[in-house]
Amino acid sequence: MIELKSEDELAVMREAGRIVARVLAAVRERARVGTSLLELDELAASILDECGAKSSFLHYHPNWAPNPYPGVLCTSVNDAIVHGVPNGYRLCDGDLLSIDFGAAVDGWHGDAATSFVVGTADQADLDLIATAERGLAAGIAQVRPGNRLGDVAHAIGVIGRAAGYGLTADHGGHGVGRAMHEAPHVPNEGRPGRGLGLRPGMVFAIEPMFTRGGGDDYRYGDDGWTVLTVDGSRAAHVEHTVAVTEDGPLVLTAP
Description:
Blueprint: H1 7-30, H2 37-51, E1 54-55, E2 73-77, E3 80-82, E4 96-105, E5 108-117, H3 123-141, H4 149-162, E6 166-167, E7 172-175, E8 182-187, E9 203-206, E10 209-211, E11 218-220, E12 227-229, E13 235-237, E14 240-245, E15 248-251
Antiparallel strand pairs: 1-4, 2-4, 3-12, 4-5, 6-10, 7-8, 7-9, 9-14, 10-13, 11-12, 14-15
């Protein structure tokens, strides 16, 4: 069942979304050459505490995972696409880092992700990130009454495919609300005019995941969580939580 959120509930989700945006900005500022992923996770946890919010990720345990998630951030480096677990790895010059983060206020969640290069950037990485961000913007633009999920998916997919990038199989966005992951699944590729009809009050996480190598296959890392490209190519992941309103898309995780 897909729950339609009221204006009051969307207001609380917007509060959670602002916290998400604040944390992502702070983590991006701190992520420099020599900084460890655990240090970034500790920074995010401290801001959560300061805001009186709860982590959406910590102890999350879907049925496919070997153990509850141990951090408040997902920190995916280079060939890690999503769900990278924070550890003692220290960032190196030129690393492509994707940060995914979720926060809950009064039981309502916000979820967003950003990708960037630490230190000296390879132009190919910058192009990958910029294309993922264009795909995100195109998907968000389709989040309006009368459209369908296929319109969102198609808008994202055509941008990624046109650039020659892979779109990670079996992964995409999702509903957001009282739980971080709710129905429906929001794919990153699809046919326009197909799928669920969008109505005011629906809320989705829109999240393109593009890979430089062009393949859609993936594998899991030894931690059972990290999703990696099979060919070792780099990946970018960007995301916003977006509400359908009568006036069009409302980005709840904007600053």
